[in-house]
Prior knowledge:
The chain is of the alpha/beta class. It folds into two domains: 2-9 and 44-143 and 254-370, Periplasmic binding protein-like II (D-Maltodextrin-Binding Protein, domain 2); 150-250, 3-Layer(aba) Sandwich (D-Maltodextrin-Binding Protein, domain 2). It contains 17 helices and ten strands. It has helices spanning 2-19, 75-82, 85-88, 101-109, 122-129, 156-161, 183-192, 209-217, 230-236, 247-250, 263-268, 270-293, 297-307, 314-318, 332-344, 354-357, 361-370; strands at 62-68, 91-97, 115-119, 134-142, 150-155, 174-177, 203-206, 223-227, 240-242, 255-262. A five-stranded mixed β-sheet has the order 2-1-3-10-4, sandwiched between helices. The termini are far apart.
Amino acid sequence: xxxxxxxxxxxxxxxxxxxxxxxxxxxxxxxxxxxxxxxxxxxxxxxxxxxxxxxxxxxxxxxxxxxxxxxxxxxxxxxxxxxxxxxxxxxxxxxxxxxxxxxxxxxxxxxxxxxxxxxxxxxxxxxxxxxxxxxxxxxxxxxxxxxxxxxxxxxxxxxxxxxxxxxxxxxxxxxxxxxxxxxxxxxxxxxxxxxxxxxxxxxxxxxxxxxxxxxxxxxxxxxxxxxxxxxxxxxxxxxxxxxxxxxxxxxxxxxxxxxxxxxxxxxxxxxxxxxxxxxxxxxxxxxxxxxxxxxxxxxxxxxxxxxxxxxxxxxxxxxxxxxxxxxxxxxxxxxxxxxxxxxxxxxxxxxxxxxxxxxxxxxxxxxxxxxxxxxxxx
Length: 378
């Protein structure tokens, strides 16, 4: 497809820039191919028996175009691809890194993209309100209390001097985060509210992740609202220090990312849509078992390193990956809460009925096939 050349080039440049931010370590060599599940020395992975393919007849693969935001919390897509779960469902999946939700929504609407894994936010809700044909069908990122995944970080020299030690100290200061259509601002506001602040009390600068790290290094901003692995990168390079509290503790369960299905995909390839979800939920369980219980952890890191370019393997070993629901469910309460905030912020005309956006039927189907998640060793 004509759109893919530019998309791949832009996305790979963005990811590569993260690895080349100030004082980067010498890049490691990511695995050229991810190994299959280990059969020795590890407890068995806690997933159901291999499900029968629901997507296509033997030998006939259904081709799917899938966009993804390159990050560890997109690993559900990577694991399903590398461990052959998509192929088992009769699917030939083409994974393309993609940064922009508005552009992805257009491709979903015109049938050039079948699935997109990205963030929530007013851009998504406005797309649905305008009649763009898509549904949010599964979790792709959420916050969890006690997890160090997303929050504000003070520039280290300002932390060391005592100028910034609390959220209240951010008032009036230049603070960066990703350019956004509301999602990032919503999450920032959740934390800022703990100090009776809002994003309007900051000198907000929308920057890409590599540019944020550079701005911290060059004293272009006083603080940044970052998520992993950028948060860990800033710490490893001595650029910034986390300011408590983290978003994960302020808003546990907040829905930060979702898997979106195109309407045309659901209508024209219904069996593929069901099979895709079976494969995705299967991989979510591998991810959780590796993250929480160490099952095949090295192999899962190999897979992530193939798609998420970080300076060296220690980043995957030391940094939080992000939390994914092993049963794939979206928390509708947080979707509705974010839409209400978006209306108040003037980013959305009215709250979209949650059922108009979220469709649980594919996760429900996957759980009928796989059964509920059972943690490894239980």
